[in-house]
What we know:
The structure holds 2 protein chains of 2 kinds.
Chain A: E1 5-7, E2 10-13, E3 19-24, E4 31-37, E5 43-50, E6 53-56, E7 65-69, E8 75-79, E9 88-95, E10 104-105, E11 109-113
Parallel strand pairs in A: 2-11
Antiparallel strand pairs in A: 1-3, 3-8, 4-5, 4-9, 5-6, 7-8, 9-10, 9-11
Chain B: E1 4-5, E2 10-14, E3 19-25, E4 32-38, E5 45-51, E6 56-58, E7 62-67, E8 72-77, E9 86-94, E10 98-101, E11 105-110
Parallel strand pairs in B: 2-11
Antiparallel strand pairs in B: 1-3, 3-8, 4-5, 4-9, 6-7, 7-8, 9-10, 9-11
Amino acid sequence: GAGVSQSPSNKVTEKGKDVELRCDPISGHTALYWYRQSLGQGLEFLIYFQGNSAPDKSGLPSDRFSAERTGGSVSTLTIQRTQQEDSAVYLCASTPGLVGSPLHFGNGTRLTVT
Amino acid sequence: GENVGLHLPTLSVQEGDNSIINCAYSNSASDYFIWYKQESGKGPQFIIDIRSNMDKRQGQRVTVLLNKTVKHLSLQIAATQPGDSAVYFCALAQGAQKLVFGQGTRLTINP
């Protein structure tokens, strides 16, 4: 079956522009996560959704970052007024929502802010 | 916050040898632990998981060991192959639904 799909796979944007990153989770997965991975680093938690609600937004770095999920499926991560330090790979993952089940990751969106 | 760290950032082994990747954690309340493999340009791929009521779990060529006393997790890969070259991350559950990841160990398999 299809895995987690993220688009675009690469995005180059100018400093100050807004960007939208999209995630299509595995069908039927109720929980969806966004992580950020800087070059050579581990994964930094940003936000997770259970259904359309976000019980934990604690990882969003600033108010320039926001995310939404509609229909319990597709999620969009929006970064406003991008800065160079926002350059990273943004990874999305989904899981059936059961406690203690592994996350299934997409291949990420590589964002470069020039 | 949780601290998940690795003993070595890089590990090189000869093809066919066994490899062991280690991970230390500080949150004794964590009850679920996972190892992921990440190849260049791809997202992390699930390898194996273990719950806190176990101390060992085996998969195909991989074994995870959990020592809750010293808060230590390890991944053993038997008879390493070139395809095992990747970055390996440990992760642990913080709260009901959040996974916290370590910084990763780069495993290189020498022919």
